[in-house]
Specification:
With about 325 residues, this protein is α/β, with parallel strands linked by helices. Helices cover about 45% and strands about 15% of the residues. Strands 2-1-3-4-5 form a five-stranded parallel β-sheet, sandwiched between helices. Strand 10 and strand 11 form a beta hairpin. The longest helix is centred in the middle third of the chain and has 25 residues.
Length: about 325
């Protein structure tokens, strides 16, 4: 089997974390990854940011390094380009690894945000990013490099991504055959699921939708995060049916990927669901023919209820 390499986008404010970005790049190379940090191309306008989005599209994982500066702010959105990159990666469903500097670490004056508005935006951004399961606090260069090495290995094991590898004609032909088989299996599954009787007695649907249990891991939302903050984590076990009953009413219309995740999060008020759990739920709902994904005019993947999903929403919420 040919070795797969994974492309990783490195995001951070630039001048204050230049050294750290270089060290993370070296760690990723040693982990047999392809770093894709835009070292000499920092976004300063929409045209350049569009180029960066195309690079993010090609990446398997996204690494966010947070220091104590918020960075340059886009005039149209009112948020920094670093946060815009992060939001775009979340919208595209790319696994994100977050590394935020400990609040107790003292830095040089030019590496600290002094604008009050930007400090508030940075605190909010950091709090949101740290809700990610693959998030760590670092205190110095050595600590950062160690945690990046561990996190990228964990991500590759737990969150499978396409990656890059050299191919040949035999491999392509084999892949095409596998895709054809999977497509036929998927069509068969959808045909079975759409034959649900009005009284809900279809065995296949009952097993997969009404009876299947799923675990959701939640992290407490924290508005202001410090190194001493105690964050509560809980696990909820529910069925796909009960979850869809709640979620479907909040999925009317067209939704971005991060909005779907926020909807799953709302199932437990005051908490944020693990991103990987949200991806699993999305995949199961798609397999059941309840939701469908598509690429919008803005080239961002979106989600909406299918006609069958709307039918089930109305049945469950009578």
């Amino acid at each position: 089997m040919k070795k797969i390499k994974y492309q990783v986008f490195i995001s951070s404010t630039y001048s204050d974390l230049h050294k750290e970005r270089k060290q993370v790049l070296d760690i990723l190379l040693m982990a047999d990854c392809i770093p894709a940090g835009m070292e000499n191309f920092v976004a300063t306008d929409d045209e350049q940011f569009n180029v960066i989005k195309k690079v993010i599209d090609l990446c398997d994982y996204y690494v966010l390094i947070l220091g104590k500066r918020y960075g340059s702010v886009n005039e149209k959105t009112g948020i920094s380009y670093t946060e815009m990159e992060y939001n775009y990666a979340i919208d595209k469903g790319i696994p994100v690894l977050v590394f935020a500097i400990d609040d107790s670490v003292e830095l040089e004056n030019d590496k600290v945000e002094h604008d009050d508005i930007k400090k508030g935006k940075l605190a909010e951004f950091k709090s949101r990013a740290m809700q990610n399961r693959l998030a760590s606090i670092w205190k110095d260069d050595t600590d950062l490099m160690g945690k990046v090495a561990i996190a990228i290995m964990k991500a590759k094991n737990e969150i499978k991504r396409p990656g890059w590898h050299r191919g040949n004609d035999d491999e392509r032909e084999k892949l095409i055959k596998e895709i054809t088989v999977l497509q036929k299996e998927n069509e068969t599954l959808r045909d079975k699921l759409h034959l649900v009787n009005v009284d809900g007695k279809n065995d296949d649907f009952d097993i997969m939708f009404r009876e299947e249990k799923i675990e959701l891991h939640y992290t407490e939302r924290v508005l202001v995060f410090t190194s001493n903050t105690v964050i509560n984590r809980i696990t909820i076990t529910t069925t796909l049916e009960e979850l869809f009953k709640f979620v479907s009413l909040r999925l009317t219309g067209i939704n971005k990927i991060h909005e779907f995740e926020e909807t799953i999060s709302a199932y437990r008020s005051g908490y944020h669901v693990n991103t990987q759990d949200a991806l699993i739920v999305r995949n199961r709902f798609e397999q059941l023919g309840l939701i469908e994904s598509f690429i919008g005019k803005d080239e961002i993947e979106k989600i909406r209820l299918t006609d069958f999903g709307k039918q089930m929403m109305n049945e469950l919420n009578k």
